[in-house]
Amino acid sequence: MSDVARMELLAPAQGPEQLEMAIHFGADAVYLAAPRWGMRAGARNFAPDELAHAVERAHAQGVSVHLTLNTVMRDEDIDELPAFLGSIDELGVDAAIVADLGAMALVRRHAPHVELHVSTQASVMSAVAAEQYALLGARRIVLAREMTLTQIAELRRRLTREVELEVFAHGSMCVAYSGRCLLSADLMGPARSATRGACAQPCRWAWELAEERSGARLGIEAGEGASYLLSSNDLCLIGHLGQLAEAGVDAIKIEGRSKGSYYTACVTNAYRHVLDGEPAEAWTSELDAVSHRPYSTGFLLGEPTQNPGRVDYARDRVMVGVVRGCERAGDRWMAQVECRNRADEGAELVVLSPGHAVRRLGPCTRSLVRNGETYTVDAPFELAEWDLLCL
After folding, report:
1. What is the spatial distance between Cα 120 and Cα 146, in angstroms, rounded to a whole number?
2. What does each C-alpha distance from 199 to 69, 92, 174 come to in angstroms?
3. Range of 38's domain?
């Protein structure tokens, strides 16, 4: 097995359907959250009964479950953690991603069978810091996003191999130190604190420069009006997985716990194929198909970039439907597809399936119109439950 293939692929799950997409399209592990203590308070998240089912469903497919408990904790948060930690220990959650030292201590005490993973929010950038967390029981460190490839390799060289290293490989970046930012709380009030999962994303707003005495208001770029000078480009390291493996990275993570099902499916699928040995060039166009800002390599190669212009999200494809079943009909297949977006008769569809290149289904023989309604679609090849039809 190559070094690249050994790296674990960790995919986000906003809710139960995204969990299914992550599992179906090849994640080795998923990360998700309960309604509290996670850094995406606005995500769908998992109620207690859903969390139990998520662990059971993932484990049945050999997929690990990592639970995010990575907000900055206050006393009222800590007070309610022990009972919750006891429950996740009983459920069989595999790991807890934690940033707060107090929460780490409680994980060790009340969830002794759950691995402790140190969140990127802890901003670990040195082997000494990683070793100290290891003394507190940490099994894995999610490194600060500000690290370069050279720095990651040096930290790995200095650190015992018993401590695993995880890095973000894809997704949104923000103007912050490892995601710790006070701009939202300062502008919108403490209820919208980024460190407690409720960021209003002011770094994505359009800003302009004002002169106090004259009242003149200027865009940062001449003739452009307001500018997105604080908005970072998205991260995409699919072409650098070999370098990450050589640097000693054990796991790569896809950002996107607020993203929809198509994002989870498409990005997980692309990285799975490359980890399994296919060339990155064959899958970069798929990453262009999902909603994203312009891509960059973040800090990995020492060239972080911003997105100051008016280009925000772009995407080349829309998810039309989710396959719910498929039966043979002579030399053809009849798939039951739950509609998610309209597709008119004659529209050219493509199919996203794990283990396959992106396949073309051909033109629709009928319109798919109503969201949530199941239609029968004629296909020249077999489709599996949770495969996606796209337009």
Report:
1. 10
2. 16, 30, 11
3. 3-173+232-296
